[in-house]
Amino acid sequence: MRVLIVNLIILSYLILQPTYIQGLRIMGIVPNFSIIIIVSFALLRGSVEGAIIGFFIGLIQDVFFGRAIGFQALMGMFIGYLCGFPNKKFYRENYILPFVLVFVSTLVQGFMTYIFTFLIRGRVQFMFFLNRIIIPEVVYTVAWSLVVYRFIYAINEKIEARERLRRKHFS
User: Fold this and answer.
1) Which pLDDT belongs to residue 53?
2) 3, CA 20 to 30 Å: which among 22, 129, 135, 166?
3) Which helix (H) or strand (E) holds 124?
4) What is the DSSP letter of 84?
């Protein structure tokens, strides 16, 4: 059941990203829902599931929206793995840690994107890229992170309650 729900969330992201999410564009910036989904699942389920979900979301981004296959998949896997470490050590109801991890993850992805897509091609206007793309995307993504995390948290709680009930019946 969990795999089906996670796949439905990823499929919904894939369908909404090129359509409705583009309607949320402000000053040419779109919130990075993939980071929010990866961080949310990593915090709720741990490093391994975070890395797996991050890899597949990144791979989907590479295949459908990217120029090369592998960059976003590796970034998603890296972010999912690292953000899953505090899984056992924080209260899931606490919304500060997801907020902070989405902030840091979006910054890291923005810097890595700058390095590997712009700096390598000789575009060295870092301050322009930072002020016009990275910082607005971080702010916009963090603002949406609280809403999406609450949604994924609620879904995860229902799945875990169902799993506990099922284990109780079979033990």
Assistant:
1) 96
2) 22
3) none
4) T
In the chain, the number of structural domains is 1
pTM of the model: 0.91
Residue 18 forms part of a structural domain: no
What is the rounded CA–CA span in Å between residue 115 and residue 67?
A: 15
Report d(CA 36, CA 21) in Å as an integer: 14
- In whole angstroms, give the CA distance from residue 94 to residue 161: 19
| Long-range CB contact pairs, 158-166, < 8 A, 24+ | 159/1, 159/2, 159/5, 162/1, 163/1, 163/2
Mean residue pLDDT of the chain comes to 89
Q: Which domain holds residue 66?
A: 2-13+28-170
Nearest alpha-carbon partner for 45 in 2, 102, 99: 2
State yes or no: pLDDT of 156 exceeds 80: yes
Confidence of residue 87 (pLDDT cuts 50, 70, 90): confident
